[in-house]
Every structure is written in structure tokens, then in C-alpha cells.
User: What shape does this take?
Amino acid sequence: MKKEGRKMYSGVIVGLSIVGVVVGFIWKMEVHQAKLEKNQHKIISKVALEQKQIQEMSKEFEGAKKTTEGKKPPHFTNLDGTIPVGGDVLYDPNTNLVWPRDGKDPGPTVCSPGKRKTWRNSIEYVYCLNRNKHLGYTDWRLPSLGELESLINYRDDRNGPWLKGQGFTNVQRDFYWSSTTGDERDSYAFYVSLWRGARSYYLKTDLAYVWPVRNAK
Assistant: This one.
């Protein structure tokens, strides 16, 4: 009897252990499934947010083109308002902004000029220009999205050649960083193709050129 009792007791223990293992396995599977659903929801939300922002940017871009209809395109002079342009900087009397004439702004060698940079390195690059009094000034900054877009002539589909015709040199076909970050995602920032006259946004770890700007005194 005692041996049979021990066998029954052992059988119950083994049975309970198996049940425990099965229950534990099912619980882990449910937790894993919940995590998968949560991650899938995050991915769907991320894609939906990016699609919404792209649609909003497209509307803003089209709106910007419409607001320029019937208006004179931007034009540039020397700092004293004279033309033809010469020297190292060009002045836009419509915006009171001063731009380096070179679109692949050389700058001091210590600042690693003329190269595409991440957004953060672009900020550091501008600080370096100011520390070294680039072109005689110490108040350069990374332009905002609106300031970069002020270089666009929406009447001309070939904005890069048009800028060259205004007196600028080395206008790059790649994008230029703006200081404007994404509305809801601080890890993104806007950049502008001044060759094609179009905007986009991407991770700040992406690479783009820098065209610094300053206000005329």
C-alpha cells in the first residue's frame, strides 16, 4: 500500500509539473504575441505619422509655390546694393539676408569645409566659422527652412543653374541642412535641394551640405 501510495504521489507530482510547464509555455507565448502586436502597432503608427507629415509638407510646398505667383523672384546684390555682384558674399534685399557666394562654402581648413555633414556636425561647423571670423563675420548660423527656401525661384524648374546666373558658385545637387527640426520627431530635420527647389526631411544622422547665412546689419 505504501509503495502504491508513493507511486500515486509521484505520478501526481509529475503530472502537476507537466501542467506547470505547459501553462508556463502558454503564458510565454501569450506574452511574446502581445509584444509582437505592440511592436506591429508602433510600426504602423510610425508609418502613418511619416505619411501624414509627407502629405503636409507636400501641401506646404505647393502653397509656397502659389504664394510666389505674380511676385518677383529673389534677386541678389552686393552688400551696398550694387550690381554686378562680386566679392565673397551676396545680399538679398527682400529678406535682408547675407549668403556666402560659394555654395560649397570653403571656410577655414580647421572647420572641415566643403563636405557633407550630419545635422549636429553642421551646427558645430557654423560655430567653427564664427570662432574663425569666416569672411570677416562672427554671426553665421544654420539657416531655417524658410530662409533656405527664400533662395528658390519657383518660376524656374532649374533652380541650381538659376542661382549660378545670380552670381552664386558651386551650388550642389545634393541637399542642404536647415535648422528646422521635425514637428513631432526631434531626431529628424528638414533639408532643401536648392538645385531642384524641393524640400524633404530625414534623420539628423544623414549627410547634407551646409550653406550658412547671417542678417545684414
